[in-house]
Design brief:
3 domains, 38% helix, three-stranded antiparallel beta sheet, extended, alpha+beta, 12 strands
């Protein structure tokens, strides 16, 4: 198949894809025929194509016979449920910041205490491997559990924006006594994106009396609890007539039928988020968070030294073991450098600095 020349033109390629689908269903049917050995339908060489065909094709029975249709992009199952390679059925396709790949993700955790205080080099303390579709925010609790099981929980955990959320700030502190230090994303409301509108922070919230006051001094009329995407939330609404007559209406809402509406999280989460967003604008917070830059060096080292970006094995269990070996290698290199006093990186000297101008005429 690697040397086969794909037909030119979308129509010819689509016809070829459908023909492949028809042939594949025919092959699978022969393996499930009455006279076929039962073991035949249980081997991976048959089970894998059957799974792929069910996710890539529709097959319906019409008056003219059986009709095979290639699934369009919008009709395909989520990437998490779709096999992207017949050679590795655990691998998945994902994209991040415009880059796409087939395979896995590795999450590295390392110690980052002051060397002069701890007396030890920075070491990788946890390795977690998932398929490529698992988001970072889904992994934080699992990482904390892994660290807790080995008594390696930090008092403060520095993470990037992919691992932070309102709920995780509270959960990390409540369940693991960890201060989660990472930038919280700004709100995605129209007012925030516009830059000049009345965003949620512009409203005054009276939690005890369940009232909200807008920047123009109008008080909300409705405060009700609800569930938003499985999360406990609070809906706050303002009177329609008050919003329609408000001179600042364009800065607040574009709705012509309803008044301004706010969606709030419970008080403890809301206050924790507002406090975190306020702190992350301070110089003191930025100085503390600058320590996290060290993990970028660890990621670079794991790529440059161990080739961690390319899988040497197939399957999630073997890939995870390879990642653990890679992290172990990094720790051995760092311990050796620590014991022998060898710098891990040679200081970079530019080409200009290497020139000897003393010989110039």
């Amino acid at each position: 198949m690697d040397s086969y020349r794909i037909p030119k033109g979308d129509d010819k390629r689509k016809a070829m894809a459908i023909q492949v689908g028809v042939d594949g269903f025919g092959l699978l049917e022969s393996g499930h025929a009455a006279g076929a050995p039962i073991w035949l339908r249980e081997i991976p060489a048959v089970v894998t194509p059957r799974t792929v065909w069910l996710k890539q094709y529709h097959r319906t029975i019409t008056h003219g016979g059986r009709e095979v249709v290639w699934r369009e992009e919008k009709d395909l199952p989520p990437s998490r449920d779709r096999i992207c390679s017949p050679y590795d059925t655990d691998a998945r396709y994902a994209t991040k910041r415009g880059s796409g790949w087939e395979g896995y993700k590795v999450h590295l955790t390392e110690s980052c205490g002051d060397v002069s205080t701890t007396g030890a080099p920075h070491l990788v303390t946890n390795v977690t491997t998932t398929d490529a579709t698992v988001t970072d925010v889904e992994m934080l609790e699992r990482i904390h559990n892994d660290l807790d099981r080995r008594s390696l929980l930090p008092a403060e955990h520095l993470v990037d924006a992919g691992y932070t959320s309102a709920g995780l700030l509270i959960d990390s502190r409540r369940d693991f006594s960890i201060t989660l230090l990472g930038p919280l994303r700004a709100g995605n409301s129209r007012q925030v994106q516009a830059g000049g509108g009345f965003e949620r922070a512009a409203f005054t919230i009276d939690w005890d009396n369940q009232r909200v006051t807008c920047p123009q001094g109008v008080t909300s009329t409705i405060w009700s609890s609800c569930s938003e995407r499985g999360r406990e939330s609070i809906v706050v609404r303002f009177l329609v007539t008050a919003c329609q007559a408000c001179p600042a209406r364009p800065q607040c809402t574009r709705s012509t039928r309803n008044g301004r509406q706010l969606m709030l999280r419970p008080r403890d989460i809301h206050e924790a988020v507002e406090q975190a967003r306020a702190e992350q604008t301070t110089d003191e917070w930025k100085q503390r968070y600058a320590t996290r830059a060290g993990v970028e060096g660890t990621i670079h080292q794991s790529v440059a030294v161990t080739g961690v970006r390319r899988c040497r094995y197939t399957g999630l269990p073997k890939t995870r073991l390879a990642h653990v070996f890679a992290a172990t290698a990094l720790n051995l290199i760092r311990l050796d450098a620590w014991w022998t006093g060898t710098p891990l990186d040679r200081p970079r000297v530019s080409h200009l600095a290497r020139l000897d101008f003393g010989l110039a005429a």
